[in-house]
């Protein structure tokens, strides 16, 4: 099992940021690395993404949401 944790600062209201991040299916519309993403932000929910990095190809990630903090 792997744990992924990323923290950044964003100059926007927390509710706006949460609404954007929680809409996992829309990630490809604004994220330059996500060519596909699907899932729901809830405990035990399945998650799938395809991330493309220049020179490295496409990486597929499948998993579940084990923990999150809004």
How many H/I helices?
2
Distance between the termini: 22 Å
Largest sheet: 3 strands, antiparallel
Structural class comes to: alpha+beta
Oligomer: single chain
Question: Which sequence of SSEs, written as H and E, runs from N to C?
Answer: HHEEE
Q: Please give the share of residues in helix.
A: 10-25%
Strand content: 25-35%
Rg over alpha carbons: 13 Å
The whole-number mean of residue pLDDT values reads 88
Strands across the major sheet, in which order?
1-2-3
User: Which spans have pLDDT < 50 for at least 5 consecutive residues?
Assistant: none
Q: Can you tell me about this structure?
A:
The structure is a single chain. The protein has about 70 residues and is α+β, with helices and mostly antiparallel strands. The protein is about 20% helix and about 30% strand. It is built from two helices and three strands; from the N terminus they run ααβββ. It has helices at about 15-20, 25-30, and strands at about 35-40, 45-55, 55-65. It has a three-stranded antiparallel beta sheet with strand order 1-2-3. A hairpin with a 3-residue loop joins strand 2 (about 45-55) and strand 3 (about 55-65). The longest helix is centred in the N-terminal third of the chain and has 9 residues, at about 15-20. The two termini are about 20 Å apart. The mean pLDDT is about 90.
């Amino acid at each position: 099992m792997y744990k992924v944790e990323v923290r950044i600062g964003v100059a926007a209201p927390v509710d706006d940021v949460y609404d954007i991040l929680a809409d996992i299916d829309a990630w490809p519309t604004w994220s330059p690395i996500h060519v596909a993403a699907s899932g729901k932000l809830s405990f035990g929910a399945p998650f799938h993404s395809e991330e493309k990095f220049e020179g490295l190809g496409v990486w597929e990630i499948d998993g579940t949401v084990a923990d999150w903090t809004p």
